[in-house]
Amino acid sequence: MKEPQKRFLKQFSRMPMACGSLVFILIISVIAILNSLGINLSPYSFDQTSSDILQSPTFAHPMGTDELGRDLLSRVFFGSQLSIGIGIFTAVMSFLIGTVYGAIAGYCRGKVDAILMRIVDVAYALPDLLVMILIGVMIGRGTLGILLALGLVSWRGTARLVRAQFLQLHQEEFIEAARALGQNHLDIICKHMLPNSLGPVIVAVTFTVPMAILSESTLSFIGLGLSPPACSWGTLASDGWRSLRTTPHLIFFPGIFIFMSVLSFNFLGDGLRDALDPRTKASSKQFF
Amino acid sequence: MLLRVVIKRLLAMIPLLLVIATLTFMVIRVVPGGPFDQERNLPPQILANLNAKYHLDKPVLEQYFLYLGRLCHADLGVSYKYVDRTVVDIIKDAFPVSIQLGGAGLLIAVLIGVPLGTIAALRRGTHIDHLAMFVSTMGLSLPLFVVGALLILVFAIWGKALPAALWESPLHAILPALTIAFKPMAYIARLTRASVLEILQKDWVRIARSKGLSESATIIKHVLRNALIPVVTLLGPVSAVMIAGSFVVEIIYAIPGMGRFFVTAVMNRDYDLIMGITLIFSVVLVITNTIVDVLYMILDPRISYE
Fold it and tell me: DSSP of A197-240, one letter per residue?
């Protein structure tokens, strides 16, 4: 292993919160993947005639049952597919669109940059959630619509970041050298500039995952996101909202899972940033 | 100079609003379905008449220019769902409610967030610091409706101390304001903590202490005054967070504000109402951002926007 990677791992392993978060994320991801392969760790038989509806947590049902008698633990495990999936998908989309967009703006500079960044500014003028609602409605309220709405909104920050990195890299001597040696634009971008700006971008993309999980649950709650039969932590929690008075555990447990995973991704992003760049001390700027 | 900045900003608002109006208009017209879809058994002739009345049968581009023409006369159109009410009427009713909710929320966020962050910074590394940061992390990691549910559960259902819904008396405003304040409070506490920690390193703080100034005077006059300048800039993002929060909070507590009208308007394809509320939100955001810039210039004379 090369020296920088070693240093990175050493730095990262020193951070208990970040490592714990990584473990939690891995566990949830394994559950989600197993579920999507049809292996449910907490199987339940769905029986419409069952009288076990709206039960409080017991040994048989650690998180209780919902209004159709379904075991909430199984439902939460099942919902992890969509919640984590949406988070990861949004992060990937934000990475791809944002990097390409930011790279074009940052590499071309001048007029192209000015126009591209004005577009981002306009997109920033409204709250994310409002834009997501409008785009989500335009595409349609299915799972795909929500995925695209989140993805199409979340790339703006990445684009700004990549552009800023590129503008900075223009000043570096090795870029000038590459240009003087007659390398073509694509080579300079892909071989020199992108690898050197990747660190902060990866950190920013890590923070996109919790943002997406939270946005999805909020959209589902106000009735403009996923709707049954789709099942995510967001839809589970908003189902639980309806019976808050009698069975508060139905909103509590999915809420805990949203909270834990959002927290984990945030700590992971923090850890990655500190490990990638030893100069920045652990500051409280993690959510900006 | 201040005036020039303000005028420049407000003038820049016009093209921005035009772009937002155009984009929103196009987005909502692409949506499949129209405002009269949900009414069952409409005879085709009546549907055609309705569409003709509201010019919905014309090409999208013509509708767009008709809309812009009306916009110039401050006519935001009519709601297709709330019978006999224009968009301006609805906004006139809903806007003050949302402003009250947002104002109360902002007040709570500042009154809790600033002391929380300051104490956390002064007691860095202690349990108080950890607790304060844990609370603010919760504010950023919990979905707003779960926060609302917890507050309702504790204070309204179990405690029976506060009403859980509606918008009638100041008592009714407490839980919604606390809910909507939770996330901004977390932002403010975090930024205040970071900012105070930074200022505490400065030479002038050491000088103030070494000349025998009392600790409280040092903190208030020399640390906080400087540390709060960056916090002022949060007002911009915070008002955006508040608008997003109002969608959720106004639905949870059944408050007749802009956020709830927006969400129902989107569900009903109430074109003009969606447009109207989106534009009002944009105006509010541009104005708060201008206020932030002006405040920043007054507080920190080193900044100039020329």
Answer: HHHHHHHHHHHHHHHHHHHHHHHHHTTSS--TT---HHHHHHHH
